[in-house]
TrEMBL record:
Membrane disposition: Multi-pass membrane protein
Top-level division of the source organism's lineage: Eukaryota
Subcellular location field: Membrane
Organism of provenance: Xylaria hypoxylon
Protein name in the entry: Uncharacterized protein
SUPFAM superfamilies in the record: Family A G protein-coupled receptor-like
UniProtKB keywords: Membrane, Transmembrane, Transmembrane helix
Record field: transmembrane: 6-29, 36-54, 93-113
GO CC, any one term: plasma membrane
Family per similarity comment: Belongs to the archaeal/bacterial/fungal opsin family.
Main location: membrane
Length: 116
C-alpha cells in the first residue's frame, strides 16, 4: 500500500497469493496424480504474483520516487519464494523428504522470510 500501487493490483496480488496457497493445500490432500495439476496451477499463480510484484508495483513505486526502497525488499522476497515450490514438490508432491525434513526445509525458508 505504501508503494502507491492501485487497489486493483493489491487485490490481485492478495488473490494470487491465496490461490497459490490453496492450490498447494489441495494438492497436498489429493492422493492421485491430479496433485501435479494443482501444483502446476499454484505455481503458475505464483509466477503471476512474482511478476506483478517485480513489475506493476515497482512502476507505482517509481511514480512516487521510492523505487529503490521498494526494489530491495521485493527482489529479496522474490529470491526466497522459488524454493517454496521445490519444498512442496519434495515433501507433499513426491514424498522424497519426510515430515521432519519438510518441516526443517520450510522452517528455514520461513525464518529467511521473517525480516520482510
Amino acid at each position: 500500500m505504501l508503494s502507491g500501487a492501485s487497489w486493483t493490483t493489491i487485490i490481485t496480488n492478495i488473490t494470487c497469493f491465496w490461490i497459490w496457497a490453496l492450490a498447494y493445500i489441495a494438492a497436498a490432500y489429493t492422493t492421485t496424480s491430479y496433485k501435479w495439476a494443482f501444483f502446476a496451477f499454484g505455481s503458475f499463480t505464483w509466477l503471476i504474483l512474482a511478476l506483478s510484484t517485480l513489475n506493476e508495483s515497482r512502476e507505482a513505486a517509481q511514480r512516487l520516487g521510492i523505487a529503490r526502497d521498494y526494489r530491495i525488499p521485493s527482489v529479496r522476497v522474490n529470491r526466497i519464494w522459488p524454493p517454496y515450490p521445490v519444498a512442496f514438490a519434495l515433501t507433499d508432491g513426491a514424498n522424497v523428504l519426510g515430515v521432519t525434513g519438510g518441516f526443517i526445509f520450510v522452517g528455514i525458508l520461513d525464518i529467511l522470510m521473517m525480516p520482510l
